[in-house]
Input
Amino acid sequence: MALFFSFLFIIIVSVVIVRYAFKNIKDTLAQKYYVETIQEYNIFLNKDKVFLKSISEYLSNSNVTLKAYLENNKQDIINTYLSLYKSLFENDLIDEMHFFKTPVENFVAFANLKLAEINLSNARKDVLLVNTSLKPAVYFYICRNYPGLRATYPIIYNYKIYGSVSIGSNLINFKSMFEKLNMPTTVYLNDKLLKHSLQSKKYSFYARYPLYKGYRVIGKNYNINFDKKYELQADKLYVIIPIKDLFKKTIAYIVVKRNFSDALKIVRINAIKNFIFDFMVFFIIFGLFIVLFRYIYKRFNELQNILELIKNKKFKKLPSKVKEKDEFDIFKNNLIDVSKNLSLYINLLTNEMDYYSKKAYIDALTSVYNRNFLEEKAEEITEKFKLTKEALGVIIFDIDDFKKINDTYGHDVGDLVLSELALNIKKLLRKEDMFIRYGGEEFVILFPHTFFKDVITIAQKIRRTVEVLKIKTPEKFFHITISIGVSEFSKDDETIFDVIKRADKKLYEAKRSGKNRVIY
Output
């Protein structure tokens, strides 16, 4: 009787342990696949964001664009950018290249060049927000034609907003991106928002798809709960990614199906082997069970540790591949291979994003920092000098009678003046000084660790350097002068912009008192 109960106890314990171990690995794999899928989505999204923003920023700052807006000549935009649009569109990189006038009036819509110059404020509230805030944005939105990811960049010249450029790609592209990685994907589109936002003929295209819980289903429909991050059904994981627009409305869900039955099959096979072995050999199994359990538990921990390293992106701490002796070694080696590929992909994408981020901080004409750099770094600069209490000097200057130069010699010569001015002033600055094109012909320089009297001396040196600078045009040489306002960071300043504002007042004093001088 004791032997029978011992045997029964071992069977029960075996079943419980195997079921627990299987559930643990299943949940871990589900969590790992969920994190991996979200990482893949973020890689796709960030790469698209960087790509779309780079194009919109380039187009909005192009001299061709500015000239076309100033002269109200949309044909220049069409002639210059039509081939670019066709190339990007035909390669499925974008679906939209749209130029707007303020507030939200159609100027050039490459998807429909016959579209009249009509007001689209109701259809493109996203563009209205960008044009009024004067800040570029990358976001999801449903316009009159399709739901998609958009980058909208304002067109600003001489402190005046003329319009914006909006570059977009269809949200459905994310479905094909995942499916290229052998991940079946379905896009659920908010039917109510589609009906409200799309033109009727565009809505009819989406209306042909089946409806599920108020969403149009593009792809295979899955019985899932949108309120969850993911659902695990049998050996299949459904990752649910909500898509919200610029105004925090949920316009869609992307559902990615992940199948990890092959990985679970290994665990099932081992569990069955262990159970049969326990059942057939009672007197040997108790000792072997302890050894086997410890072995399995150790191997599970190895896999768990690898999954944790992957989850925390600690790829350098991953163990080396081992000689494959069993299914655990195969699974372990596969995990290591996948993680190394993922590490390489993340590094490549990170380098690409760093490249575009740095590029976004540099003014294309003068090769100094642009205002976007100052906007992004203002809080960091302010907090640093508040904490260290070190000296920080600021000068702001602009070119005297610059409008007259543009009117007399043209904008090309004006651009030459700006680039020559920046090139010569950079030679006078230290590596740590921050030279910023604040807007148009106006520049700001931040001097870390520099006392106020020294900043004044540097400002006079810059003024004298510019005063003797010769600007060469095809017809003649001419000189320019600048007016400079000087200020310094004080304990009462809340942000660096307070210091710039004081310097700006001094600049206007310099202008009023005769120009070509430094006021502090």
The mean pLDDT is 88.
